[in-house]
Amino acid sequence: MLLAIGSVAIMGAALGGLLGAAAKLLAVEENPLEVELLGMLPGAQCGQCGYVGCGQYAAALAKGEASITACAPGGKPVIEALAKKLGVTADMDDHEEESLQYAVVDESLCIGCMRCLGECSVDAIVGAAKQMHTVIKQECHGCKKCFNICPTEAIKMVTVPVTLSSWHWHKPQSDQAVH
Amino acid sequence: MKLFPIRGGIHPEYRKERTAEKAIVSFPTPAMLYIPLQQHIGAPAEAVVQAGDLVKKGQLLAKGVGAVSAPSHAPTSGSIEAVAEITAPHPSGLPQLTIVLKADGKDEWASDLPAPIADPFAASPDEIRARVAWAGIVGLGGAAFPTPVKLNLGAQLKIHTLLLNGAECEPYLTCDDRVMREYAGEVLDGARIMAHTLGAGRIVIAIEDNKPEAQRIMRDATKAFANIEVIGVPVQYPMGSERHLTQAITGLETPARKLTADLGVVVHNVMTARAVHKAVREGKPLLSRVVTVSGGAVQDPKNIEALIGTKLSELVGFCGGLAKDARRFVNGGPMMGQPLPGLDVPLVKGMSGILALTSAEVNERPSSPCIRCGTCVTICPCGLVPVEMAAVIRKDHLDQAAHLGVMDCVSCGSCSYICPSHIPLVHYFNYAKGMLNAQDREKRRLDRVKHLAEARNERLEKAAAAKKAAAAAAAAAKKAAAEAASTSTADNRPSA
Predict the structure, then answer these.
(1) Looking at residue A76, which CATH number applies to its domain?
(2) CATH says B25-29+124-307 is which class?
(3) Which residues of B touch A2 (CB under 8 A)?
(4) B496: pLDDT confidence band, cut at 50, 70 and 90?
(5) Nearest-Cα residue of chain A relative to residue B422
(6) Which among B335, B452, B486 is the top mutation candidate for probing chain A, defined by the most A β-carbons within 10 Å of its own β-carbon?
(7) pTM for the full predicted model
(8) What residue numbers bound the domain in which A151 lies?
(9) Do A81 and A105 belong to one domain?
(10) Are the beta carbons of A169 and B431 separated by less than 8 Å?
(11) What is the tally of structural domains in chain A?
(12) pLDDT tens-digit series, residues A28-87
C-alpha cells in the first residue's frame, strides 16, 4: 500500500517538476501586439469571426491576415479600436451591424441531444441527456452556434426587443431637421 | 437674502396666464384606469394582482423591486381587467406592462391602510422613509425619481438645507403655483417632515418672481417658523433645474457627476412635499396629482387633480376638448417636455403638464447652416459649447462629445430655443447621451459575456484535469492490484 502511494507520489512530483521546467524552458514568446489586440476583443469565444476563439483571431490580426471587421459581438466600437491600433482605415462595407439576438429552444422539438450545451461558450444552456434544454435568456449573447448545430431545428434566434429603458432618441437627420 | 447669479438662460414667453388664475378642479373617477408599472426612474414595479382580482382603493397593485423603484396602488375600488401591454406615455410610443382597473363606482378604501403618524417629528427618519416608500411617492416635478431614495441622503451626507422647488420655470405650467396657493399648509407640513427626515435645519422655499401670489401665501404660512424662508428667485429659464436653483441660493456650483447633496442641499418639488404630508399625516398612498392641461389647441385650459391612470383624452375632453388642430402633444412643459404618441395614454405620477400645441406654437422650421454666432455658448446654463458638441455628434464622434461634456448637459433646450439657424441642438445631445449610455450598457454586457466565457474555460480545464487525475489513479490502482496479485502468487509458491 505504502509502496504504491509512494511510487505514485514520486512519479507525480517528478513529472510535475519536469512539466514545470519544460514550460519555463520551452515557453513560446508572446507577441505583445497580439496580447493587446486580445484585450480589445470582447472575449466571448463565440467563433463568429471564423477563428476558433478570440486568441486565434487576435493572432491572425497581429499577422495582418484577418479583416478587422469580422468581430460580430464587438460591433463598431471594436472595429474602430482595432483600426486605430493597427493604423488602418476601417472599411465598414463588409460589416453589417446586426441587432442583438438571443436563442430560444422550442420545447416540442428538442430531443435532449446535448449538442448545443457543448457549443455554448458562456454556459447559457441548461439541460441533461434526453431531457429538455432551455436557454438562460439573460446570459445568451446571440452567437448562433447552438442554432447552427441543432439537429432538429429546435433553436430559434429572436431579436432582443427595444424597451422603454433601452430606447433613446435617434440622430436628427440634417436634411430634414426641424426645430 | 442675497441671491447668486446663474449662468446663461433664456426668457421665453411664459403663457401661464391661461391657467394661473383658475382654481384646481377635481376630475371625477373615470370608468377605466390604466396604471403603468414603470412610472419612475429605476426598476419597473412588479404586479401583485392579476385579471379578475377585486381591489379596494389604496390597495397595493404593484410592488417596488430593488433599491430604486416605487410601488403603485389602486386609485379607486374595482376589478382588475387585465395586466397587459399598453402604449406608454413616452416619445417612443412603445408599449409597457400596465394594470387595467375597472372602477366599480363605490370608491371604497382598503381596510389595511397604515395609521396616520400623529407626531412625525417624534418619529425616526427610518419610519418616515418607510412610509414615503410605501406610499409610492416619486418626484412630482417631472423627473419621477423615487423620493425615499433622496430622503435617505441625510443618512450618508450632512444635509443642512432642504430646498423646496416652487420655481416652475417651464412656460404654460401652473400646477405647482396653484398647489402652493391652495394647499400652502399641506406643502409646508410635508416640507417640515422631509427636513426632519433629512436632518436639515433650514428650509428654503424658492418661488420665481412671476408668482407673487404664491410667494405671499407661502410667506404668510411660514411666519411662525424661524428656520423657514421663502425666497423669490428671478424669472430666468432654467431656474427650476435643481443644480441651478442650488447655485442661485447658495452660490455653490454642483460639480460634474456629483449631487447637490454633496453640497449639503437636497431639492424637492412642492407637490412632492404635499404627497409626503398626505402619506404621513393621513396614511394615504399617492393616488392622484395636479396636472396643468394647456396649450393653444385646448378649448378651456385648466389645472386638474386627477387619479393616476386616467386617460389623457378624458382630461383634455374635461377641458372642452380641442378647439384647433394640435400639431404636437407634450408631456410636461414645452422646453423639456417629451412628445406624446397621442392622447390615448394614461396620466402618470411624473406628468406635470399635458400640452396640446398648435403648429404656430410648435413653430417648426427647417434648420439652416450654423452661422457661428455663439449665442448658444452665451446662454448655455451649464457652461458648455453646444455648437462644438453638435458638430462632433453630427460626425458621430461620440467620444469627443463626451470629452466636451455632453453628459453634463441637462437637456434644458435653451440652445435649441435661441439658435437663429433652428439647429435642433438639444436633439443632438439627447441622441449622444442615449448612444453613450447604450455603449456603456453594451460594454457591461460584453464584460459579463467575457466573464462567463472565462468561467466556462476554467470549468472545462478543471473537468479535464479531474478526468486525467481519475485516469491516473485508476491506472495506479490497477498496477498496484497487479503487483499485489503477483507478490501473493510469489508468496504462495513456496508454501504450495
Answers:
(1) 1.10.15.40
(2) alpha beta
(3) none
(4) very low
(5) A179
(6) B452
(7) 0.86
(8) 101-159
(9) no
(10) yes
(11) 2
(12) 777 888 888 888 888 888 888 889 888 899 999 988 888 888 888 888 888 888 888 888
